[in-house]
Structure formats: structure tokens, C-alpha cells
Amino acid sequence: MELMKTTIRRIGNSQGVLIPKPFLAQLELENEIEMDVEGDAIVLRKPRKQVREGWAEASKAVAASGEDVLALGEFGNADDGELEW
């Protein structure tokens, strides 16, 4: 895409710009962006994924498939016999 000029428009009590659909499609943006000011530029970025995003759903899928077996099996520690519960 080449450089494009656009107009700042009033949106309620704020102001904004319309982002052309080809720009959104090129970056696969849908509903949310990250916005920052860098020097004399407003920078819009694709949101970074959250740490461990999707882990809960993935673990539920593994449990539902029955593949959630212990990798090392169960084993006790040498001193477990002395513990009182």
C-alpha cells in the first residue's frame, strides 16, 4: 500500500479517522488494535496475544479426549512416609 492522506472527522465528542478496508485486511485487523504515539506519529498495531491465551480451552480439549495422562506417572518422594496428614 502506498501513503494515503485522510481527514480527521468528528465522532461524538472525539475525533477519528476511517481506516480503509484494504489496510485492515492486509493486517488481518477486526475489532481491536493497540495504539501508541512514537515521536510525531500515531502508531496502530495488531494486538499482541495475551500470555497463555487459549491454554484453558486447549487443556479442556485434551482432558475431553482422554489424553491427559501423567508423563512420568505417579511416584512418591523418599520422605513421604514420615509425613502426617
From TrEMBL:
Please report the stretch or stretches of sequence annotated as the SpoVT-AbrB domain: 6-49
Q: Name one GO molecular function term.
A: DNA binding
Keyword vocabulary terms for this entry: DNA-binding
Task: List the InterPro entries hit by this protein, alphabetically.
Answer: SpoVT-AbrB_dom, SpoVT-AbrB_sf
Q: Which residues cross the membrane?
A: none
The record ties this protein, via SMART domains, to:
SpoVT_AbrB
The protein's name in its UniProt record: Transcriptional regulator/antitoxin, MazE
Q: What species does this protein belong to?
A: Caballeronia concitans
